[in-house]
Amino acid sequence: MSKQILFWEKQQTTGSEYLELSYQNQTIQVESTVLFMENSVPQRVLYRILLNKIWGVKHLYIINHTLGKTLSLSTAGDGRWFNDDGDEIHMLNGALDVDISCTPFTNSLPINRLKWTPDEPKLFEMVYISAQDLSVKKVKQMYTLKHHQEDNRTFHYRSATFESPVIVDKNGFVLEYPELFIRRF
Questions:
Q1: Helices (H), 19-107
Q2: N or C: which end of the chain has fewer CB within 10 A?
Q3: Which residues contact 4 (CB under 8 A, 6 or more apart)?
Q4: What is the pLDDT of residue 166?
Q5: In sequence order, which ranges of the chain are alpha helices (DSSP H)?
Q6: Helix (H, G, I), strand (E, B) or coil at 50
Q7: Which Pfam family would be a valid example here (predicted)?
Q8: Are strands 122-129 and 97-100 parallel, antiparallel or unpaired?
Q9: pTM for this structure?
């Protein structure tokens, strides 16, 4: 088993994220702690994601310690999502990846799952999770590879009316999400 550590700093507000990835034979285990301010209230969010070896989500667990709220979702990678009781969450049907609002890491999921050709946009249905209240909804997001260099790639990201470049390293991990996150380690 090998391990990798990533650390991001929030840009517009106070906050940071410490994330560990553990690579095993058939899975990637992600465990992260995110600290940030929301409406002048300190927030502490912990999340764990279990991925298959090709970056497909298998299970997600998230807790907002400030609220004392948790969320657990699982999927077989076929676009169907289930809660802890095994009940299917129909409103999420079709989504393959997750996007957690407080972290740049989840941008790596679709980026690392697929092969990319410059200027060829790819549309994704995502399970969007608000870290502030752990609400869940399905959203559409588009990524387009704009620049590819030896050490990094730049994607154009769009979701509804929000657009931004996202710069990732050669392994698909966010280096900079302008005005939102910058990686320090």
A1: none
A2: N
A3: 20, 21, 23
A4: 98
A5: 108-113
A6: strand
A7: Glycolipid_bind
A8: parallel
A9: 0.96
